[in-house]
Amino acid sequence: MYTNFRMTKKITIIGGGNLGQSIAHGLLSKNYNPSNITITRNKIELLSNLKLKGLTVTNNNVEAVKNTHIIIIAVKPYKIENVLQQIDSHLKKNAIIVSVVSDYSIESISKNLKTKVSIIRAMPNTAASVNESITCLATQNASKEELEDVTKIFDTLGDTLLINEQLMDAATVLGACGIAYVLRFIRGMIQGGIEIGFDAQTATNIATQTVRGATELLIKNGNHPEAEIDKVTTPKGCTIAGLNQMEHSGFSSALIKGIKTSFDNISK
């Protein structure tokens, strides 16, 4: 993860929704020069907080991409073709298109551009706004230097992995949709905590720190989850009793089925 981000190339984010804004906030938190960032949205009043921080805010995609090195497209899937055709003739020859649009291939992007540019797909998640995203990158024609530049951007938002594009839908489900899965799990922990006696805020504090601690155990120790589970499950203890009850109720199976259902939905 980069702690000092010094790249000075201009970045335009087309689509200032939740993910687009998360990327912008992540860059700002690593002291990226706000004057080098442009972000677009039809309702620009919804970007007033970023404008106050020094970003260029506009609803004109064509103007936004002129003289821009890296264009991050963060619109809804049904809008991307129109956006690509709109900006095509206004792209710099050395521009890099970075798409964070789910289920839209590099080949499809290329077909909608007459201008030959480097194309990279990226799939971060909304934890980018707190620099804890996992971003998967895939490319077919970007140079090593171009890939390094884009990696630097997303490294400011968390961790970055280079994957085969065929796995991008799977990355979307596990990494991006996965935020919602984990939050739903945490909500369940909080509700259980309230039922056994804690007030909502205390239950939230305990649950969130417990999840953070469990994650750090896996990251720092490099163990399989079951190895860490074994450390807290004693014979006839309360932990194994609770785990077994969850499994009898289909806990792991429901999670796996949910992930597979999301994947099947995105792949249709």
From TrEMBL:
Presence of keyword Amino-acid biosynthesis: yes
Pyrroline-5-carboxylate reductase catalytic N-terminal domain residues: 10-101
Location(s), subcellular: Cytoplasm
Binding site for NADPH: N61
Catalytic activity, reaction form: L-proline + NADP(+) = (S)-1-pyrroline-5-carboxylate + NADPH + 2 H(+); L-proline + NAD(+) = (S)-1-pyrroline-5-carboxylate + NADH + 2 H(+)
Pfam families xref list: F420_oxidored, P5CR_dimer
InterPro entries found in the cross-reference section: 6-PGluconate_DH-like_C_sf (IPR008927), NAD(P)-bd_dom_sf (IPR036291), P5C_Rdtase_cat_N (IPR028939), P5CR_dimer (IPR029036), Pyrroline-COOH_reductase (IPR000304)
Family listed: Belongs to the pyrroline-5-carboxylate reductase family.
Name of the protein in its database record: Pyrroline-5-carboxylate reductase
Organism whose genome encodes this protein: Xanthomarina spongicola
Gene behind the chain: proC
